[in-house]
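Students often ask why we bother encoding 3D structure as a string. The short answer is that it lets us treat folding as translation between two languages. Here is a chain of 387 residues written in the first language.
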Amino acid sequence: MKMGCFGFDFSNFQSITVFFLLLMLGLSLSPNGCLGIRSFPEERRFIEAPEYRNGVQCPVTAETQDMVHIAMTLDSEYLRGSMAAVHSVLRHSSCPEHIFFHFIAAEFDPSSPRVLTQLVRSIFPSLDFNVYIFREDTVLNLISSSIRHALENPLNYARNYLGDMLDPSVTRVIYLDSDIVLVDDIEKLWKTPLSGSRIIGAPEYCHANFTKYFTDSFWSDPDLPQVFGSRNPCYFNTGVMVMDLQKWREGNYRKKIEKWMELQRQRRIYELGSLPPFLLVFGGLVEPINHRWNQHGLGGDNVMGSCRSLHPGPVSLLHWSGKGKPWARLDEKRPCPLDYLWEPYDLYKPKPKSRPNYQRSKMRLYQYNNLDFSTSNILFGYSNYFI
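And here it is in the second language, the structure alphabet:
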């Protein structure tokens, strides 16, 4: 009689049944044929990022209130984008050792929060960060169907709960989406003042047609549009926000957003996922931040293959909001010209051992946008981006 791993008799039907049941529960075979904890090959596809040190002008030590706090979601689907975003933040920071990341991971992500935590640590060994588990059932009964299935992901709503999840000592945070890269020092954004009673700061786009973010049912109601009063609301993208968490908690803004989500379930007053509740609560009450800090919409339309160009003016942050993501288009060998600006921050392998060809990236962008890279501050507002 031949005994297998853990004393299983593989000639016995019951042992075989138990064996395959364990496989279904998430265990896998080790090289010697024994059962072991499931491995995640994705972890081996990322290289370790360079270690970034503070400049001489940085304080020797930093207390919690002196750190730059950044909150991002962390999931297996957008993991590659998140790691590139972190890399870009550290690379352009004057005091990278004084940056603290708060990652929000879904409880039932296919890779599990624990595995994602280990992965971040393997890529950025010296990074200061916490990973918080976001329970999807917190918000599942508040999410209504959207025009895009991706917008229904519960993790899109994690930003509503930062005041609850982060330690009370964290009174200010920058929220960033996973499909961004910075080409400037994050501390400049961190120091943005929020005047008066402002809770959040973000670039506003007042030329956008604000009415399209809500249904005819909303605008035809005699009472609902009055929520804006004399606020003169403008569209803003929630993928880049400076947030005063102390005022957020004091004003219980999580509950204010949830009330609009509850009404949406009853009456269908908007079509787009997590953005409209923010517009309803904060539209017209946002601290305006320079547009250079959210050059959004670079994802374009992935189905039609359309590519977007930069908005006029300098750039500190590029944002691939929209259906198309740079890593997917690069892998599929059909990138948009601006996707080459994301590529140098990509830590996912396999990749060629040689350094990224920045000259090639500059030439392709020049051909597409007819831009003068001899004065890079026209495009980037950051003189040594290509170094």
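Translate back mentally: DSSP finds twelve helices and 13 strands in the chain. Keep this in mind for the problem set.
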